[in-house]
């Protein structure tokens, strides 16, 4: 069995040698005429300026190649590779368009023993697009971080925009040219020259476009900061019958930034005017902050909430004993009533605290001689209390000399 397998292998080797020898003989001795295709032969484009003159642009990433049919002696045909051929496509004076263009080729160099005539009708496929120029802004993607107590107020570029050129399908993708970088601990204005990159709406890089300049001068403005209180600007008085118990504002302070010449002049930030005469209940009022020109609210605050607490007035009746003052020595006084009923009005919280002792009701007898008088007591109320009425409003006062009895009225004799 092993002997039989050895004989078969030897037979195969001999057959292979004979076949190869025959092929060598045919190629080198007989050398018949053969036809073969040569694939992926690169094409060189000439007179590219004709593309620009027709307001078109060559699309990128094109491997412009053709397939050539060659004919000749087998020994030459089988040795043919793409690098043996030089193929050009002359764009001069050709009518071109956006999209697919079939351009005639010319085979300017090839092995002398080969015939490439069958390839004369082969065309190179060239993809073009409309040429577009568009001005786009420069945007900052520069991470500028201010030092403590400072604020990055803004970034400007010189120039502020750049012209982007190239195939329309790529130029139309460009949203802006981004200046990228990073800098920390800024305490003063900062300047740097940065390279630019074209980006789309998703901030992805757009390739295959041209723009000039490639670099831009960036200027960053840095301001000092300080915290100042927010004050409420009010006008008018709360309507009659109400008392304003408290006013507060949130936030109570605001962090601002600006040039030192302006910042040093500001000690507070006020709200827009709040008209108290239009308010008749407690509540919150959103008011715009009045930020001076040239000053920046660091945290973006543009308004504050003003909280007002109002209390409606109520009434209360208090009986108060009437006292006299200023009576001369040696005189005595008799009042038609020793007390008055006083109706007072004020906030309920204040009314709850008021007592007879906190009110005075006095009749001033200074300089009065013995006799009868009709006098009005002077009522003094606590702060925030309003006198509504006093009953009786007028008291009959009789002043006599001490020790003298008050005589009854004389009777008129009967006629």
UniProtKB/TrEMBL annotation:
What are the alphabetically sorted keywords of the record?
Membrane, Transmembrane, Transmembrane helix
Q: Which InterPro entries match?
A: c-di-AMP_regulator, YbbR
State what protein this is by name: YbbR domain-containing protein
Keyword check for Oxidoreductase, yes or no: no
One matching Pfam family is YbbR
Domain of life, per lineage: Bacteria
Transmembrane intervals: 9-27
